[in-house]
Amino acid sequence: MSVVSEGQWWFCLRHMRVEPDKGCPNKDRMGPYSSEAEAAGALQRAEDRNKAWDEADQDEDD
Questions:
Q1: What is the predicted pLDDT for the residue at 6?
Q2: CA dist 42 to 8, 49, 57, 62, Å?
Q3: Contacts of 5 (CB under 8 A, 6+ apart)
Q4: What DSSP character marks residue 26?
Q5: Domain assignment of residue 43, given as a range
Q6: Tens digit of each residue's pLDDT (9 = 90 or more) over 23-62
Q7: In 3-state terms, what secondary structure has residue 15?
Q8: Residue 41 DSSP one-character state
Q9: Is residue 2 in some structural domain?
Q10: Which of 2, 8, 17, 18 could form a disulfide with 32 if both were Cys (CB 3.0 to 4.6 A apart)?
């Protein structure tokens, strides 16, 4: 994304891309993040956390 902003960044779940503060409604986005790069990793970070939580739940069930 070529938009330069010192504000907050979001990952839009509707368009599957990083957006600056002005973009789609927050209900369609993950964030805010402090940088464009951090927002770009939102889906991977969520996947990693979900996996860790699932593994923790499995450990508790054992």
A1: 66
A2: 13, 11, 22, 31
A3: 20, 21, 36
A4: G
A5: 9-61
A6: 999 999 999 999 999 999 999 999 999 999 999 988 777 6
A7: coil
A8: T
A9: no
A10: 8
Structural domain contains residue 1:
no
Domain-embedded: residue 3: no
Determine the pLDDT at residue 1: 45
CA distance 9 to 1: 11
Query: Domain count of the chain?
Result: 1
Q: Is residue 4 part of a domain?
A: no
Asked if residue 2 has pLDDT above 50, the reply is no
Residue 10 · residue 30 · CB < 8 Å: yes
Rounded to two decimals, the pTM is 0.76
Burial 9-43 (b: 16+ CB within 10 A, else e): bbbbeeeeebbbeebeeeeebebebeebeebbebe
